[in-house]
Each structure stands twice: as C-alpha cells, then as structure tokens.
Amino acid sequence: MARETEDPGMAKASKVKRQRKKKTKENKTRTVHANLLYDNAKGEENPNRHYANNKIKTTKYTVLSFLPKNLFEQFHRFANVYFVFIALLNFVPVVNAFQPELALAPVVFILSVTAIKDLWEDYRRHRSDKEINHMDCLVYSRAERSYVEKYWKEVRVGDFIRLRCNEILPADVLLLSSSDPDRLCHIETATLDGETNLKQRQVVRSFFDLDCDFDPIKYNSIIECEKPNNDLNRFRGYIIHRSGRRDALYKENLLLRGCTIRNTEEAVGIVIYAGHETKAMLNNNGPRYKRSKLERQMNVDVFWCVIILLVMCLFAAVGHGLWMFQYGDKRPVFDVLSPDGTDLSPIMSAIYLFLTMIIVFQVLIPISLFVSIEIVKICQVYFIHQDMELYDEETDSHLQCRALNITEDLGQMQYIFSDKTGTLTENKMVFRRCTVAGVEYSHDANARRLAMYQEMDSEEEECTSHGGTLPRRDSVTSHQTPWSVRLTFTHFSYSVLSADKPSSDLQEKDITPDPQLLDKVNECSSQMDFMRFHSQPMSQLPSDLADVIDFFIALTICNTVVVSSPNQPRQKVQLTSTKSIQSNHLQVNKGSSSSLITNRSSNKGCSSMLSSPSAESTLTKLDEEQPPRDLEHNFGPVLPCYDGKAWNLEEGELRYEAESPDEAALVYAARAYKCSLVGRLPDQVTMELPHLGKLNFELLHTLGFDSTRKRMSVVVRHPLTDQITVYTKGADSVIMDLIKPPDTGSSKGKRQKKIVNRTQNYLNLYAADGLRTLCIAKKIMSKEQYACWLQHHLEAETAIQGREELLFESALRLETNLQLLGATGIEDRLQDGVPETIASLRKAGLQIWVLTGDKQETAVNIAYACKLLDPEEEILTLNEACALFNFTTFEIYPSSSPSSSSSSHTPPFMVHRLGLVIDGRTLAYALDKSLEDKFLAVARSCRSVLCCRSTPLQKSMVVKLVRNKLKVMTLAIGDGANDVSMIQVADVGVGISGQEGMQAVMASDFALPRFRYLQKLLLVHGHWCYSRLANMILYFFYKNAMFVALIFWYQFYCGFSGSAMIDQWYLIFFNLMFSAFPQLITGTLDKDVSAETLQQLPQLYVNGQNSEEYKPYMFWMNMIDAFYQSLVCFFIPYFAYADSDVDLFTWGTPFTTLALFTILVHLGIETKTWTWMNWLSIAFSIALFFTVALCYNASCPTCYSPSNPYWTMQRLLQDPLFYLLCVITPVAALLPRYFYRACQGTLFPSPVQVGRQLDKLPAETCRNILSLSRVKVGSPLSPKPPFLSLAKPSPKGCNIKDQRSFPSSRASIV
C-alpha cells in the first residue's frame, strides 16, 4: 500500500526532473530548421520565429523616444538634476529670485547642446545602419526554385544563402557546400581581428561527399547549436539527419558575419545567427567609458562647492531672520506678506530666504564646467590625431583614441606594464641557428648577411627620403617592415629575390643555408633516392641522416601555412594543373579532412585545440585493408641535383601565408635547404625534397597550437615508410618534458641521451643570445595505437560536458614519449627606438615592468638589449625552488620603508639598483594572498621587474595587484589577444596595431602603431592634457566663486533679502556666454613647456605623477583668492559711488564689467602660451559683453519697474569714473596673485618653470644646456636612487649576481 502511494509522487518528481533537464538544455542550445519547410505554414508555426532577424539597429533613439530617453540619460549626471531643480524652484513665487523663464535658459541651453550632439551621432549611426541593411545577397526561394536577391535585413535564421567570391557575409552561416574541389572556403577576417591572411573553413562533414551541387530542397536536417555568444574562436553544435545520424559542428564550419569570401567562386550555407545575435555584433561594444583620476578629484571639489553654497545660504538666512527679528511687532515697509496676506514670522522668512539664496548663488556650482571639459577633451584628441610624429608611414596608421574621457590620465601614469613580443620587438622572425641530432649549425654566412642588411638599413635611413608609393608586402604579415619604408621604389617583382626587394623581406626569406647541414640534406636525399630506385627499406638510412630529413619535414609540414601565388595573393595554387605532377599524386580522399586553422593567441585552456572532422572516417579507413603501395606514386619527377647557391627557382613564385611569424620563418628556413612546402589540401600536405621531387603526406590529424599546451602536432602517413608519424614542435620547456626517457643500456638509448643533453645546452646558448627557441620532435605509432587514440579522441570531440579538458587529455596521450630531433633559434628584432623610449620613460619616473611568455634567458637578454636592465645593477632571480623561502625571509625591503603603501604620489619605498626576474611558476606562488604583499614589497623596491613565462591571466593579476595595493596609475601596453585582459584591467590600456591582429587594439583606450610613440604620447601630450585640464578646472571654480561672492557681500547692505544689484540677464549669462570662450581656448591650446623640452627633459613628467597642478590645497587657495578679489571688486565701486544718486543697476552694472575684466586678466596671468586665438577670444568676450549690454539697455525701457536697465551702459560709457574703475580695480584685485607668481618663479621655481625658461633662451643656448645635462632644480629633475647592497646573504636557491660580468647584449637581439 505504501508502495502504491509512493509511485505517483515518484513519477511526478521524475517528470518534473525531466522537464527541468529539458528546459535547462533548451536554455543552453538553439535549434535551427530550414525555412523552406515552413514557407506555406503560418508564421507562428515556424520554429525559427523567435530568433532575431538580420536587420541591425545600432541607434539609441527613435523619433518618439529621443526626447524622453535622452533627457533620462542626461539626468544620470547629478549636476544636471541639480540645475533643473534650481530652475523649477524659481517657479515657486515665495522663493523665486529671477524670472522663471529666464532661469530655465542656462540649463535648457546645456541640455540642448548635449542633445544635439547625441542626435547627430545617432543620425550618423542610422545612416550607416541603413546602408548595411540594404546591401544585397542571394537567398534561396522555394517559389522561384532559385536564389533571388534580397536585402540583408530580409535574411532570417534558417535561410539558405549563396556566397560569391569577394562578397561580405551578411550573417553567421554554416558552410554546407563549396565550389572548391577540396570543399574548402577561404575567408579574410580583417574586419573582425585585423588579420589579413587567409583562413580556411570547411564544409560540414556529412555534406563533404556530395557528387552534385547542393540542393536546398533536399535538405531535411536539424541543427542544434549553442546560444549566441561573443566568442569568435568557438562554435559547438550538432547536425541531426533524418536517419538519426549526428555529426559534430566546429568553428571551422562557421563563416562569421563581416568576413570576406576569398579564393572561392561560390559557397552555400544556412544562416545560424542573424543580426544582433551574430558574433561580430555581440563583440561590437563601442568605446569604453572610464572616469579619469582628475575627474574624481574634481567631483570632490564640486562637493565642497555645494558645502560652501549651503553655508553661504545658511548665513544669509540667519542674517535675514535676525534682521527681521530686530523690528519686533513693527513690520518694516519693505516686508513681503505671505501668499494668504498674513505676516511671516522671522523663522519662516529665513527658511524662504534660504531657498531663494540657493537660486541666487546657483552659479557657484559651475553648470558649464562639464560641457566645457567635454569640448576641451574632444579638441585635445583632435590635435593628438593631427600630430604627424605619431603617424607611421610604413603601416599608414595614426594614433587612435578610443576613450575620449581619460586623455589627462596619460599625464599621470606611474607604472607601465608591457608585453615583449610584438610590442618591444618587431614580431618579424628571422631564422638564425639550429641544432639537429645534437649537432649545432651556427649559420655564420647567414649572420654575415643579416649584418650586411643592417648596415644597408642604417645607410638608407640617413640618405633616403620618405617619399614614394609603398607596395604591399609579399610576406606573411599584413604590414610592411620598418626598413621598406625608407626605400623609394614603386614596384618590384615578387618572383625573383633581387636587390630591389625590401631588406626585411630578404632577411625573413632569403636565408643562406649552412654548408655542412646542406651537404647532409643532399646526402640524405641522395641515399633515399637510391633506396627508392632499388626498392630498399628506408629503415636502413643512418640515424643521423634520418633525423636531419625528419627535422626538415617537421619544419615544412608541422604548421598551418597556406600556399598561394604572389601574383594573385588571394588565389590558391592548384597543383593539379601542373604538368609535372601526375593526376594520381593528388587524389583527395573525400572522407578525410583536417582543420588547418589555429588560434595561437587563445588563453582559454585548450579551446583552440583543433578537432578533426575526419576522425570518424579516418577510423573507418584504418579498419580497411591497405593495398601495397608503389612508392613511385608518392613522388613527382626527379629534379636535377642542387648546389649550395641561393634558392631562386620556382619556389620563389610561391607565397606563404602563416598565422604566426614563427611558422613562416621555419618554412622559409626549410625552403633554403630545398625542402619546400608546395601545397596544402584538407587531407594532404605536399612538399618537395631535393632528388626526390614532390612527396604527398596524408594528413590524418592536426592538433593546433594554444597557450596552454604551447605546442602543435600533425599526424601524417609517411609516404616513404607508410608509417603513421606524429611531428610535434613547441616550446622547449614543454617538449623536453615529453621526450621519451632514453634506455641507457642500448647504443641507441645512449645516443638519444647525448642528443637531449647537447640540445639542452644549445637551447641555453640560444636563449642567452636572445633567440626564440622551439624544439622539434617526432613519434612513430602503430596502426592499432593510432586507432585506439583516435577512438578516444572522437569520444572527447562529441562530449557535451568538459570537452576542452577531454581534448587536452587526448592531446597529451598523443604527444608523449617523443623522439627529439633538434631545435631552432629565431631572432625577433627590437623595434626602432625602443631602448631610447624605455630610457626616457624611466627618467620620467615611470616604473616599467615587462610581462612576457618567453623563457627566462631570452627575456633577460632582451631586457638588456632594450635597456630595461642595466649591466651595472644586480639581478635578483626568483625561481620555483626558492619562491616560498625567499618571500618569507627577504625582510629588508618592508623594514626599510614606511609601512603605508596607499600614497598615490611618489612611492615611499627606496628604489634600489636591483632588477627582479621572476618566472611564471614562482609568480603563481607570489600572487597568493598570503605572499602578494611581500612580493609587492620586493618588486617595488627594484628598479626593474621582468616576469617570464607568464600567462595572460597572470599578467592581468599582476596589473590588478599593483593598481589596487599601491593605489597608483597603471598603463598596460600589448599587441596580441593574450594581452587583452591586462589592457582592460589597467587604468589606461594601449594596443599596438602589430602582427597579431587587432584584438588588443579593440580592447584598448589608445592604439599606437609603434612602441616608440608612447614616449611622446605620455611625456608631451599626456603632460599637456593634464596641465590644461587641471588649470581649467581650478579656474572654473575660482571664476564662479568670485562672481557669486559679489552678490554675497551685497547682502550685508540689503538686509539679506536675496536682492541682487546685478541685472539677472548678466547673472544668468555671465558664465555661459561672456567668459566662456577664452578658457576653452586656453584649455585646448595652452602649452606650459614645448614638446622638444618635454622630451629632452623627461623628468618634467613627474609634475603630473605627483598631481602638482591640482592638489587639494590649490582649490582652497583659489577660493580664498576668489573671495579676496570679490571684496576688492565690490568695495572699490561701492566707495566710488557712495553718497551718489545713481540707481541700483547703474551702480551694479560696473560690478559685472569689473568682474569680467578681472577674471580675463587672471586667465592671462595663468596662460603660458599666447597665440592669436587667445587674444581673439578675449577681445571677442569683451566685445560680446558690451554689444549685448548696449543692445539690451537700449531695448528695455520698462523691464523691471521701478528700477530698469534702460540706457544704463550708455550712461556709464560717458562717465570718466567708470573708466578709472576699470583700470584700478583689476590691478588691485590681481596684484597679490601676480606678486606671488613673480616671486615663486624667481626664488623657488618649479621644474616646469625652469623648462619654460629654457624655451625662452635661444635655440643654440638651450641645446648646449641640455646637452651638458646639468639642469638641476631640486630632486625631481635628477632622481638618483641610492644604491644599497643587501644586508643579508641571499637565500639558498635565489640567484643574485653582478651583471657587470654578463656578456654584452647586441642591439639587434631581442
């Protein structure tokens, strides 16, 4: 019985659980059906109806929503709410001070200006949206039985789209068919990530074997995929066929909106995501909003202005109450009755007057300050963009400012965190040296050739001009090299390496082979040719020669390089059309394909690992009987013997497009030894060897490079041995751990151990020379081993949960017990001007940390080359073994400095002549909560910090730790996707538009073409922007306080009644019109020191770091000065017109005039650089005031009876006393400030004032003074941190050494 009663409950619970599980699954996935099946059905029956259409709308407003929505957004700014409240308060009769309509004028003007700006920006977005939405594309129509033209906005999820060559994709499309015989579609993703090299996408596996054109009518499958997201490097899903078969979908099957079809005549796909659900639109976040440090300080002072306002109003209210109280029961004749006609008590009168005074004194809060700051920042950004010294001619790129509201932060930076590769270096790799089978080949001839190119570059830099038309580079990257910009040619041949070619292209491609290694390659190829001719097994080849040929095979095929023709950069080379190749050499197995796309910048574990859509079909093939192969079928015709001359044959006609410069450098190096990559298909890689001709390697699987594994592998069937071979290349720190332990009992094992030891020694030497190192290894698998691995890998590919982890484990099973073949050393040269830039920034007081993923030896050598580390300073090296011990015992640093670390000014720690080098594993310990404070204490006490082998996450954690713990201003600069998190965490993020795409640029606040431009951006433009805005804000506070105080002094003579002797028109428009223009000009154009002096004296940058232009006491000094000047401007006219019969406005109008003159002369005292625009703006302000006053006084005979402003200004201009007041009053008011500035500049000049004095000297004299480097004005100009040796012996395991014995680094080494 109990069981019976339990069953319904259990069944119900089970049903609820199933429904919840189904609902969860539905929330995580989307199901896409073909719209053709529902053409005749009602709209509500189409399962795709809930998905977004393809019409995009990036505008914020509509015609109806503009006014309410824009006002709502503007009222998010507290100042606007305050001013609207004041204006509405003026409509209350009891407390009003001005005409209600007039009081609304300023706030309406401010809101209108902002609204018009927002409307214009939105209209531009609307026009852009309309243009995009009305682009054409071909969509399949069931009624027409063909593809018809439709607008992009009419495309829906589930539509079939035909794509043509050079056409832009209108939506995210799943590729179902391609006219390419290999079922590939080539795309260019420059609009998404800035990379102009071709990427391959492939048709969905189940549609790969179609013998005829794809027919949308016959399509009856259902697609289940993930919800729309902004991850460009991930796409997961399944396609379910009517038979019930499910095939996995990958990012290699998805074509993203905004990409361009290349090298493919025609392709067909089904729309998966449309409109705002596409990945491109989800990544379109627009400019980021940040609040600058100066703005945060300003908000504090706005708050103090509110306090001052309330105090003044309270003082006036109490004064009015006491004034009324002294009359007792006798009401004064000027008393104002309440609305109901009764007398008001003194307390109520005081309360009403308090509100009235808020209206009268409202000008104390600068309503135009916020708008003026926005205008000035926009102007500053414009002038920064116009600086031609920040323009890079070779890449044709300017500085980009993506965050308009933090320009002044550029002048207050204290810490710089920089990436290395591509940021400090060119990221253009040049092959230098290699070791194969334990033998090192130094490539001395190649080194001499590189030295010759560098000499040519230096001569061209001095002799040639920057004119001429620059051709597009034919290298693997999208930018020209630094040396090609100096050549004045307009065209050169891509097919032959000639003297007219840019020297950087020659450095990267025209590699001089090492004679000994070339002889071995030729000997090996000759023996293999002999064995082939006599049908001998390849296992008889000597081990040293076998390793050599395997080494170059790995260099050639273990990559994702796409081969194309340079004459048609977007046209793939069709090997089948070459007469010298038999047709059966390139037969494609349609059931086998392999992804050729990698994402070397990914930082998400194994998310970039390539899955192989051919896994299932490959597994099926392995079970089939393999017929005996004729080795002749794997070769092309035999080519003539080669000598050691440079490679100038038909391979020079090929163009290699690689996703990383490292891959291209290795392919070009292999080509120099006649091992050339000549073709790549989805399931086959073709290379050419000397004597042997072309070999076709069947590509079984590709495991792409990612930042977690730090290696890539290809699984191929070797055409010579018919063995399944794994070729792996990657970082030495990873590959060396995966090498199979040698069996020392056998001669082969001893040989392997010897190779490993020798290779490790050479790797250390390469790293000491600053070369980037890669290890090459291989592994031979039996058919059964590979089939077993493939089965497990297929299960990992089709897993729903934890796919990345399973794929990582699967890759690890494949890439173990490797045989080491050799290693390479590649040079990545420093960018021009990097050492000088770093030296200049350090003189400016900036702490520079380099965070790199390179190994420690390479990073240290680079640090010496770019002058981050000084040979005279000691190096503290923290490795994993000493991490815990070091941080718990190294107590000298925190004990030798104040305990407080919250200062935002110059760090209180004493900076020692020390350099800190820390590796990634140690950094993981250091960033632990229990050790981060001690790590930070050690790091900030060192002059330089170098973090090696650091992951993208560690980079961002280091920046966040320094920013939050030390309360300093941080700047992060990088060029790749692995730098994005660091860039976003820092106060200011700078992206370098380099060789690794545009991910860093899109995430940054500022984008630079070169690292060296950072010097002028910070030291010059940053200094100017900060100085201008800081002085403008302080001037605003002073100006408003000075004008309001005039009315406050008058309250003592009018019974604190809230009356004003100044006409309300002048009161309202004084700040908005009469005094607005000069301060905008000064805030935009003022230069306290010239650009040349700021760059020659980097120490002047400390002025912004310490906030010397805007300290808290300066606000109060300005307020005191404002009240003093208002006293002078009030009482001089007061006593001048005492006992006269002038009316109120005739007496009050001079106050406005004198205040205007005083604040304009005050601005003149604070202006450092005078231009014709400064003079014009001041003249315009004075002319505008008198013009408005004369017109207004002539047209208003009975405005405010009994007193009225009629003819007031006309009478004053006829009075000599008025002119006398206009001279005496401003002089008396500004004399203290002028005296202070004169004395301070003469007796106690600041470094900036000294720099300004240098600008006034003759150019020759100034250069002589600066060249002597003897300018000494206090410590900021000559910071010389004392060198303190360690008081304690270094902990065991930590390496502290005198680097004076370190080998000198070369400037070209990176």
From TrEMBL:
Gene name of the record: atp10a
Protein name: Phospholipid-transporting ATPase
Enzyme class: translocase
Gene Ontology molecular function terms on file: ATP binding; ATP hydrolysis activity; glycosylceramide flippase activity; magnesium ion binding
UniProt-annotated binding residues for Mg(2+): 419, 421, 975, 979
Basic and acidic residues composition bias: residue spans: 621-633
Nucleus is among the record's keywords: no
TM ranges: 78-96, 102-120, 302-327, 347-371, 1033-1053, 1115-1138, 1144-1163, 1175-1195, 1217-1236
GO biological process, one term: phospholipid translocation
Comp. bias intervals (Polar residues): 603-620, 1301-1310
